[in-house]
């Protein structure tokens, strides 16, 4: 058994963050340089190619240094770096403070690491695009905001990153803004995310009102004494925060933006909409685990929403034809797993899955990007306007793209949870704890989803890489493997997708050595929350809800996944698909799944159209009708009175004379009588 | 009733004033209307003269003022009437409502 | 005492634009704009050091002077600033050069009078913010109307006459009642203390019976609420904005609307503390603000006219400000003041941007555009930054203001703050569709294809706004530090005086007057 703190027992040097500001500044400078470049030297590709990736790699290096320093010092308390006072008014004082602790540095590692790989990949993928410099400006800006999000030492700073990544996501989804649908997808993402942000804001306000501070360390230290366990306040706070998470991390009911977000360039989908930004919600729940642990209701809601989303999205993924849509719903589903984990109290497992998912989902997206790149290139050569994303137009690509093919299989096995790939360890841990902590139904849902996952991923592999090629006779000859700048990142991520799970191997498994490095690393972060949970009856049953230990169920789940893969493979390998242009959309249950359970249509009819009608009514009826109507009515009645008065002004001398004499007589009469 | 000279003059001036007023009200010809206005002015003059006998000479000063104003008015008024006559070939006041906004 | 610590800096700020305005009237047709720009830039430079010479940490009025003017009536030239008016004055001098430089190519006829009007308006606006004599204040308050009326009525769009008259009538109705209330105040003060005075510092000490406070507050509030504009007095605003020339809209949104909120803060609330803190008034205004926030956003979301859309967003934004002021917490009031500045900068910039489009295409209809980002990249950049500031993205100025308002309001009125916070959703729902329909999509008309990106002059116009959007968003400390003492003192004063407000005046004469004013006198 290997235990990190034991190894590092000797190291006592206090941990001081190394170059903390530069972690943020480098990507920001990169964004600024590329942003200026987008105006000043638009044709020049070498500057963005250098600045873009290097800014992020530089940040990665500093993060690694910090990680190593933290590893040797093993600090117990977070290190706070205060930069300046941001907002101070009344009793509120919010500083621009960064928090370096085990969780934030881990997130930084994942964010900058995966970002570095994807930036390099982008050099190849976006090489032909006229908006090259702008692309890197947005991408660097995204890294900046993502780091702000994870490093923030108080709620408002995290919120800056939270909305900032949303902005970058908006800009990058609509990167090819000339396409109206893409621009709409970006807008949808932003607006839906704002619904979540509303929840985040209210959660923040409640925290401020009850704690008088918004700093993480102070809030978490005061929480057990300030709020009642299971009380309404903490439940409301956490539910509002969780509303924010459902927006950012695409959970029911706010998941609808993520599949549409695939309109952005594929590296963006890999980075923002798979590996990093969408996991921010999970990060937030993990960060505020103390609060969530105090509310059993919220915990249950998080777990149930997570499990429900996992299953729901997985069903949709089985019937999609757009390769990126499959991966998008897969992401929604995997995020559901993470929420399930943090919901049942297995925070470490949730964060663990967040990390391994970042590796293999980035790999899968970049692999799909390679496929799309090759397809796009082929279609471009023959001036065809077929959809390169549609798997019905692909098939048999393994002959043309062997490296992509191989690495994609690694990713597929990892996400399906096949031992010893990374996904096995993280997913198995989630499923196990769900059962062991007594969430029987959710445990079943998680198992079922795991098998669905193996199924739709195998379908994706078969449709893309096996069988006859359906790209078209002419285009076929132009298909070829992507350049090294793109496949090397694939290879790196493939390696991580294999070994990424080995930092955390349960004791229960036979043969394998137990490794607790990951658990031990995050122990200081989650110890308070775990303490609260355990003191209120959280107990690990050493058997699943229907009996059997961890080793047995790990075995069953990996075997089940393997069987599903084999069966799906055998069922689909001989099936033939027509190219997308000649296909008809599926009907029946498959049709319902293909149309995503008609949720978008439902939202349209139930929410958006009524709202628009209401808004129009406000304008036409209330504003133009009632208010302006009464004002204009007042004006015209004044006019009317004036008009009546003007009737007496005939302009004839005799009339006036008549009034005059009458007047004189009246006056005379009053004086005389 | 004791009809001394003062009362007689006052009755005459009231009569003249009434005639003038009636003329202004009922006649249409601008010249006649105009003359009726003069009649009213002179009726007032007569009243002033009558009262000057008992109240002092200041009233007679006022009479001269009225005569001067009447003369000026006659000049301007006749000029307007002539202009209107030339333009519209008639001086029937009921045909004109030029002052109506 | 140096120039910047004496009243002279304020007097110069007041007279300089007036002199420049007169100079414009006599300048040549083509020179007027340069005169105006020069004057406004000099005024801005004069006001700039104030920000640093202003003493922090005290709520005392600074640069204060009181010179008798119409002595027998107790009217004086009384001016001075505190942290609140400091920001407002700086906002005015900041916006004006942008507005003037932004009009350079837009205004082609009667330039002398146009720029003359702008500068006279500037003088009047500064006057409103620095005046501490009710007569002087009312003078400037009414003086603002005249140039604005002409700006809309002469250089406006097709329905300019309708809009100008509507603007004039709405504002005039309110201010007339305010005049009555001012005179009443002075009269009451005279009856109680035997001194005729219009000075703010005197009148603010006047004890007024609780019942009378409501009536006088209502008279002030109507004038200010129309200016803000608070729902349902807002309908003049969209018309005025749509018809006004660009600079008119910029000034209208940037400064004029703040007169209303400033008036509440400076006059209506301290004068009538009891009424202003009573449940009736607070709840009424908060409800109206909430309606403004949501309703303004909803109506904005369905506008086909870009300028009208932005006009309605002002209703929503000013709703936030009003909410902050009447939540009566230090955070929310400071947020409200900062939001006044923010709204001036962002909405002013938005109107400038739409004006630049209008100059090129002579249409404001959103549907006439599309794909502008392709042909005007710098315009697109600026538009997106300003739009994001308007919807309150963290890191821009809009967020700081809204956050402080909401968190402060949440302390006293959590439900109201929650409803107001939905405004962040609606903000995205009205602003982003406009951004999309104007900037994104294919360039599908030939007129749009030939559009030229912003000229150097136009970039210079926008640059200060873009810089301030980020500066205030990232480092609002200096601004908050200057308003904090004034706001805290004000809130304290309101609180104390609200409790002290007499139920019935002791003095029989004064009591009779109060009854008289209320129309309660029997026999």
Structure description:
The complex is a heterotrimer of chains A (about 675), B (about 100) and C (about 525). By secondary structure, chain A is mostly helical. Chain A has 26 helices and 2 strands. The termini of chain A are far apart. Helices cover about 80% and strands about 0% of the residues of chain B. Chain B has helices at about 5-25, 30-55, 60-90. In chain B, helix 1 packs antiparallel against helix 2 (about 30-55) and helix 2 (about 30-55) runs antiparallel to helix 3. The longest helix of chain B is centred in the last third of the chain and has 31 residues, at about 60-90. Chain C has a domain at about 275-475. Helices cover about 75% and strands about 5% of the residues of chain C. Chain C has helices at about 10-25, 30-45, 50-55, 85-100, 110-130, 135-155, 160-195, 200-205, 210-225, 235-245, 245-270, 275, 280-300, 305-325, 330-360, 370-375, 375-390, 395-410, 415-440, 445-450, 455-475, 475-500, 510-520; strands spanning about 60-70, 75-80. Chain C has a two-stranded antiparallel ribbon with strand order 1-2. The chains are: A mainly alpha (about 675), B mainly alpha (about 100), C mainly alpha (about 525). Chains in contact: A-B, A-C. Chains A and C meet through strand 1, helix 6, helix 7 and helix 25 of A and helix 13, helix 15, helix 17, helix 18 and helix 19 of C.
Key words describing this protein structure:
heterotrimer; B: 101 residues; mainly alpha; Helix Hairpins; 3 helices; 78% helix; 0% strand; C: 523 residues; two-stranded antiparallel ribbon
* Count of DSSP strands of chain A: 2
- Strand order within the widest beta sheet of chain C: 1-2
Into which percent range does the helicity of residues of chain A fall? over 70%
H/E topology pattern of chain A: HHHEEHHHHHHHHHHHHHHHHHHHHHHH
Roughly how many Å is the radius of gyration of chain A? 31 Å
The Rg value of chain C, from CA coordinates, equals 23 Å
- Which structural class do you get from the secondary structure elements of chain A? mainly alpha
Provide the residue-averaged pLDDT of chain A: 90
Quaternary class: heterotrimer
Q: Biggest β-sheet of chain A: count, sense, barrel?
A: 2 strands, antiparallel
- Kindly state the percentage of residues in helix of chain C: over 70%
Estimated share of beta-strand residues of chain C:
under 5%
């Amino acid at each position: 058994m290997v235990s990190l703190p034991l190894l590092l027992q000797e190291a006592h040097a206090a941990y001081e963050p190394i170059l903390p500001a530069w972690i943020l500044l480098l990507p920001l400078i990169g964004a600024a340089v590329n942003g200026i470049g987008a105006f000043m030297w638009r044709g020049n590709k070498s500057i963005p190619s250098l600045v873009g990736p290097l800014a992020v790699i530089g940040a990665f290096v500093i993060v690694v240094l910090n990680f190593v320093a933290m590893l040797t010092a093993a600090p117990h308390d977070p290190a706070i770096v205060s930069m300046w006072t941001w907002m101070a008014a009344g009793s509120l004082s919010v500083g621009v403070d960064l928090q370096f602790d085990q969780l934030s540095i881990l997130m930084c590692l994942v964010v900058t690491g995966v970002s570095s790989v994807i930036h390099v990949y982008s050099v190849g993928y976006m090489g032909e695009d006229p908006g090259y410099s702008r692309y890197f400006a947005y991408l660097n800006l995204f890294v900046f905001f993502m780091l702000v999000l994870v490093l923030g030492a108080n709620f408002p700073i995290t919120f800056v990153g939270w909305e900032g990544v949303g902005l970058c996501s908006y800009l990058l989804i609509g990167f090819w803004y000339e396409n109206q649908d893409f621009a709409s997808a970006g807008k949808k993402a932003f607006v839906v995310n704002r619904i979540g942000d509303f929840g985040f804001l209210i959660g923040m306000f409640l925290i401020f009102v009850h704690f008088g501070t918004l700093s993480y360390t102070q809030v978490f230290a005061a929480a057990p004494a300030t709020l009642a366990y299971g009380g309404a306040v903490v439940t409301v706070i956490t539910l509002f925060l969780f509303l924010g998470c459902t927006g950012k991390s695409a959970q029911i009911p706010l998941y609808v933006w993520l599949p549409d977000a695939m309109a952005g360039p594929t590296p963006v989908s890999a980075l923002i909409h798979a590996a990093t930004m969408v996991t921010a919600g999970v990060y937030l729940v993990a960060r505020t685990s103390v609060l969530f642990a105090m509310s059993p209701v919220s915990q249950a809601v998080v777990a149930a929403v997570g499990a429900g989303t996992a299953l729901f999205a997985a069903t949709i993924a089985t019937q999609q034809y757009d390769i990126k849509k499959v991966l998008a719903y897969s992401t929604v589903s995997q995020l559901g797993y993470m929420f399930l984990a943090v919901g049942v109290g297995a925070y470490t497992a949730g964060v663990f899955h967040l990390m391994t998912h970042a590796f293999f989902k980035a790999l899968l997206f970049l692999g799909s990007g390679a496929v799309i790149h090759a397809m796009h290139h082929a279609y471009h050569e023959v001036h065809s306007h077929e959809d390169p994303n549609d798997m019905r137009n692909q098939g048999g690509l393994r002959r043309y793209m062997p490296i992509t093919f191989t690495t994609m299989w690694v990713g597929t096995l990892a996400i399906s949870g096949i031992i010893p790939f990374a996904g096995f360890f993280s997913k198995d841990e989630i499923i196990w704890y769900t059962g062991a902590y007594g969430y029987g139904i959710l445990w079943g849902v998680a198992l079922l989803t795991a098998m669905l996952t193996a199924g739709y991923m195998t379908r994706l592999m078969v449709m893309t890489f096996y069988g006859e090629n359906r790209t078209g006779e002419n285009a076929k000859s132009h298909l070829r493997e992507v350049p090294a700048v793109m496949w090397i990142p694939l290879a790196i991520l493939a390696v991580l997708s294999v070994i990424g799970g080995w930092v955390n191997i349960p004791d229960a498994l036979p043969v394998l050595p137990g490794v607790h490095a990951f658990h031990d690393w995050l122990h200081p972060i989650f110890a308070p929350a775990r303490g609260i949970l355990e003191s209120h009856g959280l107990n690990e049953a050493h058997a699943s809800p229907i009996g059997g230990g961890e080793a047995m169920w790990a075995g069953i789940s990996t075997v089940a996944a393997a069987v599903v893969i084999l069966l799906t493979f055998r069922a689909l390998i001989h099936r033939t698909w027509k190219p997308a242009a000649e296909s008809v959309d599926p009907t029946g249950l498959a049709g319902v799944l293909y149309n995503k359970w008609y949720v978008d249509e439902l939202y349209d009819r139930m929410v958006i159209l009524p709202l628009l009608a209401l808004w129009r009514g406000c304008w036409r009826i209330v504003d133009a009708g009632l208010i302006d109507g009464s004002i204009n009515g007042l004006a015209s009645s004044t006019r009317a009175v004036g008009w009546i008065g003007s009737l007496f002004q005939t302009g004839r001398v005799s009339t006036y004379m008549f009034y005059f004499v009458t007047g004189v007589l009246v006056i005379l009469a009053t004086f005389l009588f | 009733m004791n009809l001394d000279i003062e009362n007689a003059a006052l009755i005459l001036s009231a009569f003249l004033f009434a005639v003038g007023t009636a003329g202004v009200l009922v006649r249409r010809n601008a010249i006649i209307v105009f003359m009726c206005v003069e009649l009213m002015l002179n009726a007032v003059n007569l009243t002033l003269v009558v009262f000057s006998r008992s109240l002092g000479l200041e009233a007679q000063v006022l009479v001269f003022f009225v005569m001067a104003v009447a003369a000026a008015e006659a000049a301007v008024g006749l000029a307007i009437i002539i202009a209107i006559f030339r333009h519209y070939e008639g001086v029937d006041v009921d045909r004109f409502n030029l002052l109506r906004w | 005492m140096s120039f910047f610590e004496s009243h002279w800096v304020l007097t110069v700020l007041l007279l300089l634009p007036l002199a420049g305005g007169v100079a414009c009237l006599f300048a040549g047709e083509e020179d007027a704009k340069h005169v105006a720009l020069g004057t406004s830039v000099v005024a801005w430079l004069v006001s700039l050091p104030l920000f640093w010479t202003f003493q922090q940490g005290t709520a005392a009025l600074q640069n204060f002077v009181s010179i008798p003017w119409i002595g027998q009536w107790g009217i004086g030239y009384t001016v001075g600033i505190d942290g609140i008016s400091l920001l407002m004055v700086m906002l005015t001098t900041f916006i004006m050069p942008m507005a003037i430089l932004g009009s350079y190519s837009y205004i082609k006829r009667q330039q002398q009078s146009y720029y003359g009007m702008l500068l006279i308006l500037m003088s009047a606006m500064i006057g409103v913010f620095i005046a501490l004599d009710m007569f002087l204040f009312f003078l400037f308050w009414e003086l603002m109307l005249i140039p604005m009326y002409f700006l809309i009525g002469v250089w406006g769009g097709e329905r300019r006459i309708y809009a100008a008259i509507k603007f004039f009538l709405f504002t005039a109705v309110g201010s007339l009642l305010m005049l009555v209330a001012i005179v009443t105040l002075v009269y009451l003060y005279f009856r109680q203390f035997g001194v005729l005075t219009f000075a703010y510092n005197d009148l603010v000490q006047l004890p007024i019976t609780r019942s009378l406070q409501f009536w006088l507050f209502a008279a002030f509030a109507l004038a200010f609420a129309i200016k803000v504009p608070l729902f349902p007095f807002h309908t003049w605003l969209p018309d005025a904005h749509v018809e006004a020339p660009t600079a008119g809209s910029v000034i209208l949104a940037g400064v004029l609307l703040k007169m209303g909120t400033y008036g509440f803060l400076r006059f209506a609330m301290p004068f009538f503390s009891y009424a202003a803190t009573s449940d009736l008034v607070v709840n009424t205004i908060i409800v109206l603000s909430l309606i403004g926030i949501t309703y303004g956003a909803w109506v904005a979301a369905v506008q086909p006219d870009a300028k009208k859309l932005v006009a309605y967003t002002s209703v929503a934004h000013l709703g936030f400000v009003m909410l902050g002021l009447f939540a009566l917490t230090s955070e929310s009031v400071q947020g409200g003041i900062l939001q006044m500045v923010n709204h001036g900068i962002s909405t002013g910039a938005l109107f400038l941007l739409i004006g630049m489009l209008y100059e090129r295409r002579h249409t404001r209809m959103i549907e006439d555009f599309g794909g502008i980002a392709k042909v005007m990249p710098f315009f697109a950049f600026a538009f997106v930054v300003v739009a994001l500031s308007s919807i309150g993205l963290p890191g821009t100025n809009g967020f700081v203001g809204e956050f402080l308002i909401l968190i402060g309001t949440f302390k006293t009125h959590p439900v109201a703050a929650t409803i107001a916070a939905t405004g962040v959703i609606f903000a995205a729902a009205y602003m982003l569709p406009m951004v999309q329909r104007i900037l994104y999509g294919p360039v599908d008309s030939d007129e749009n294809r030939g559009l030229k990106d912003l000229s150097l002059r136009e970039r210079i116009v926008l640059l200060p706004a873009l810089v301030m959007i980020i500066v205030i968003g990232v480092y609002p400390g200096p601004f908050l530090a200057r308003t904090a003492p004034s706001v805290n003192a004000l809130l304290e004063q309101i609180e104390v005086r609200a409790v002290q407000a007499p139920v019935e005046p002791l003095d029989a004469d004064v009591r009779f007057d109060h009854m008289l004013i209320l129309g309660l006198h029997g026999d």
